[in-house]
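Sequence, please.
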């Protein structure tokens, strides 16, 4: 995981020196925001960051939701995301900007605090593994419920809210599955622990609407790609048993990319292997991310 440099509070420093005080407010209370971004090596040997502007827009939106004023402009953060890849001499990598509260004071309410910003990059392969992209994964409906929209701010990628995801993921893995699927407070399918979810039935692709879920950048890209490929895509609620009888199911996310789901709660999805529609969307996604389709060139920020 280790890289040479991390950008932190205005300068590039050695990886091992990127430390914070034990009284850092976000460490105690979770009020911080972050993004996960991927840089791909393209078919022509150049490197490009996928959907960088959209990710930074969401980072600033998340910070606004939790009332953290980022002390840098969007343009500065975008340029720094590009620079951290160059500084570490990566052709492909994962990029993690994080915004958090400093250690001025502890307590639930702190009037004056320093907002700190760091940008990390490291080489990170397929989140659920290369075999998962090829052969699919097994998922479990979690006993943990996704946040109520008025309990956790679901449109923000907020650090503390990921405790919910971690508990769900731990439960799923302990039960022998690869990933967890969480329901919303009304019992409808919400999202996975760190991914958005899609299902195919009767040639119609469905994905959870923007109710209790984080609006995934990869989710938006896949909706656009799927429609451009001629598939009908609906953003509407569905239940766990609708997943059981789906022809295909797949997850999307910056880390997970496009990962097929072949089993849920011990029930095979379709034929129990990655379906042709999922694989065609996955193939198109990677082609676009690697700069093979000029019509989507505005999705890529070249270094």
């Amino acid at each position: 995981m280790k890289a040479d440099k991390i950008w932190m509070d205005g300068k590039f420093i050695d990886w091992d020196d990127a430390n914070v005080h034990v009284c850092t407010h976000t460490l105690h209370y979770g009020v911080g925001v972050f993004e996960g971004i991927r840089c791909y090596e393209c078919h022509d040997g150049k490197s490009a960051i996928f959907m960088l502007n959209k990710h930074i827009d969401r980072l600033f939106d998340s910070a606004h939701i939790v009332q953290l004023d980022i002390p840098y402009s969007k343009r500065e953060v975008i340029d720094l995301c590009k620079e951290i890849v160059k500084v570490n001499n990566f052709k492909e990598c994962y990029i993690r900007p994080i915004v958090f509260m400093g250690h001025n004071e502890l307590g639930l309410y702190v009037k004056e605090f320093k907002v700190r910003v760091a940008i990390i990059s490291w080489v990170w392969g397929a989140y659920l593994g290369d075999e998962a992209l090829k052969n699919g994964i097994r998922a479990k409906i979690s006993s943990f419920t996704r946040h109520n929209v008025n309990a956790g701010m679901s449109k923000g990628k907020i650090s503390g809210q990921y405790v919910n995801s971690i508990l769900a993921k731990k439960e799923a893995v302990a039960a022998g599955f690869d990933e967890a699927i969480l329901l919303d407070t009304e019992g409808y399918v919400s999202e996975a622990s760190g991914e958005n979810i899609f299902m195919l039935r009767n040639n119609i692709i469905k994905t959870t609407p923007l109710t209790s879920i984080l609006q995934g950048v990869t989710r938006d890209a896949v909706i656009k790609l799927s429609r451009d490929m001629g598939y009908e895509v609906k953003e509407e609620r569905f239940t766990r048993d609708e997943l059981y009888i789906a022809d295909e199911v797949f997850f999307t996310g910056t880390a997970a990319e496009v990962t097929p789901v072949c089993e849920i709660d011990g029930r095979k999805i379709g034929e129990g292997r990655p379906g042709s529609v999922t694989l065609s969307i996955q193939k198109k996604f990677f082609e676009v991310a690697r700069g093979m389709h000029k019509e989507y060139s505005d999705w890529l920020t070249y270094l």
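The chain has a mean pLDDT of 96.
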